[in-house]
Amino acid sequence: AAFSGLNNLEELDLSNNSLQNFEYGVLEDLYFLKILWLRENPWRCDYNIHYLFYWLKHHYNVHYNGLECKMPEEYKGWSLPIYPETFDLDKDDEEWERHKEQTVQTVKKQGVIVTVIG
Question: Which key words are in the record (predicted)?
Answer without folding.
Answer: Leucine-rich repeat, Repeat
